[in-house]
Amino acid sequence: MKVKNLLSIADLTPKEIESLVERAIELKAGIASKALAGRSVVLLFEKPSLRTRASFDVGIHQLGGYCLYMGGQEVGFGVREPVADVAKVLSRYVDCIVARVNDHASLEELAQYASVPVINALSDWEHPCQALADLQTIREAKGTLKGLTIAFLGDGNNVARSLALGVSSVGGNFTIASPKGYELDSATLEQARQRAAEWEGVVRTTDDVREAVSGADAVYTDVWVSMGDETDRSARLKAFQGYTVDPELMSLAKADAIFMHDMPAHYGEEVAPGMLDHPQSVAFDQAENRLHAQKAVLEYLLKPK
To answer: Model pTM?
Structure first.
């Protein structure tokens, strides 16, 4: 029987995304679930992590499951042994593979050969678990996801890609402001626009941060230099000058707009010092909601049908 994976937020239908967000809210409210009782999940991480590792580990235990962590040295994709062999072996031991990888192609190969569900805990292409937690955070703050405008300021990276697809899937409008050369790819924009069209939503691009933020319901930013981009650091810092979110820029959004950041934050770059503690910030709610959103995903993929 073919298993369901979560490699991209687009692997989920709009109805599935909405159901997962609502279930995450229920789990956060204290609804008990032991959907992983007697189940084992491996965290296969090529990249280090604070929020992702802690939230998955704690969430698996709260759902009654057993969590095994394997770091970069144990993984060694394509070095110690082929990805296909890793997938086949781990499928004999565990009920789910949660992978945080350098290259999205490794994730796809892992899913191709695994006989258990594979969850993308971050790749260079997407970060679907973050997007689900983001949507949960917006839903909690605003009471709805439909008709809202989310403005993302910064690199058209994995976080922006998943967020664009997620927001457009549930009836929101998405605007991304990026400097030239760092835009979101055209294929993702087209896919997001197709999803948005189902709701008469809008997906816009610009290089003007003030235009993007004006009238937005949520203002979202991410680091300018992601893991793996360090060699390009000086060029990126130069290109993103003027993209820093501070109280003055935030004031251009709606009066009740929320400020979002997936963390870690680089103060003095994409955010001014103190912005994560700004009265409109929900950044720490986002961090908490990784736990609840991921529990909803694990429950959905692993509970007996």
So the answer is: 0.97
